[in-house]
Backbone:
């Protein structure tokens, strides 16, 4: 919805004036979210791409894709939608750094998929303009435009289809693949996703990856390392995340300072990659979700694993940060033979055959 002079990738056409106000607000929100996804892809950090569905859930909207809640009862959720909308409206003014020539296939494929998906949604918007009709009052006066219910339904469904596809396409490109494709120097410690493997720091499996690309590439296991002090500084985490790690280590009876440092350095990286530090994060798209075993919480653990590796004395709630992290650590020790002091955290995982590792976690 940018002015023609500033039109850029991810722009959506204006909705018909007769569209419901709630739908208009959602479309403005969606445009900002899509453009932020594109911006982060162009900066080599697609894993930070926002998920509109989860953003609205985080604002307290239990059923963001429920049409009645979002349109007919829009007034009840106006403030929540506006908070998300205002955060991403700002991105529209800045332009989107994007390179489309001579870059890697994963990134160009993502750009192409976004353009296709957004184009299909714009076709639906254009069709809605043409479908409007005029009605008057009983005296044949006060004409006003009306948008058929069918077109409202098509637009609402099309919006979620588009934002979900763009999120999957962008988050499905690993940071490393995007950075390399875009010519971003991975060894630059100032880059937020600069992670260089080293024997000095733990390397962890990302056992419940949040991207289709990573699952297809290695059946559910990625390797990340907190190697240098500069790398570690990029993943210092929030106080709440650190407190969750400390609580998990306490629950597991790991009190030695050096052992706690081994686990903390690794888990700050894992949690950042898996959930961005959001204890309520939930994966709604992958094969685990399709089977009803949604990956959840700080470490994106599936319920079956959480139950099997639950640590006594912690909460039975999978979203509880301490319980979630403790179960994850317990699983890593069992599955990868990691020592309780974390001293072989890197080497144990490096020796694991990714192809044999479990998909999901």
Residues:
């Amino acid at each position: 919805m940018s002015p023609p002079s500033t039109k850029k990738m991810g722009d959506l056409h204006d909705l018909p004036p007769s569209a419901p106000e709630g739908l208009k607000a959602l479309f403005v929100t969606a445009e900002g979210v899509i453009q932020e996804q594109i911006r982060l892809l162009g900066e080599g950090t697609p894993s930070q791409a926002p998920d509109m569905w989860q953003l609205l859930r985080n604002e307290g909207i239990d059923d963001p894709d429920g049409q009645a809640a979002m349109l007919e009862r829009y007034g009840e959720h106006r403030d929540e939608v506006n908070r998300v909308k205002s955060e991403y409206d700002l991105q529209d003014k800045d332009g989107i750094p994007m390179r489309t020539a001579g870059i890697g296939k994963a990134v160009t494929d993502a750009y192409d998929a976004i353009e296709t998906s957004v184009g299909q949604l714009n076709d639906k918007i254009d069709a809605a303009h043409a479908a409007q009709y005029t009605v008057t009052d009983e005296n044949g006066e006060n004409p006003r435009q009306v948008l058929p219910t069918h077109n409202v339904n098509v637009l609402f469904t099309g919006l979620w289809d588009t934002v979900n596809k763009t999120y999957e396409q962008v988050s499905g490109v690993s940071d490393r693949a995007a950075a390399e494709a875009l010519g971003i120097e991975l060894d630059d410690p100032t880059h937020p996703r600069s992670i260089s493997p080293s024997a000095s720091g733990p390397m962890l499996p990302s056992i419940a990856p949040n991207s289709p690309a990573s699952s297809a590439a290695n059946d559910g296991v990625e390797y990340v390392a907190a190697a240098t002090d500069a790398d570690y500084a990029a993943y210092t985490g929030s106080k709440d995340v650190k407190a969750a790690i400390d609580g998990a280590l306490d629950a597991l009876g790991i009190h030695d300072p050096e052992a706690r440092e081994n686990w903390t350095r690794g888990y700050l990286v894992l949690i950042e990659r898996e959930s961005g530090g959001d204890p309520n994060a939930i994966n709604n798209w992958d094969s685990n979700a399709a089977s009803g075993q949604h990956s959840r919480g700080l470490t994106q653990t599936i319920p079956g694993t959480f139950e099997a590796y639950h640590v006594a004395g912690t909460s039975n709630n999978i979203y509880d940060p301490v319980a979630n992290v403790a179960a994850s650590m317990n699983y890593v020790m069992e599955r990868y033979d990691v020592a309780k002091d974390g001293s072989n955290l890197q080497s144990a995982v490096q020796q694991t055959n990714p192809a044999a590792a479990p998909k999901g976690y």
Notes: The longest strand covers residues 133-135. The longest helix spans residues 105-131. The chain is about 50% helix and 5% strand.
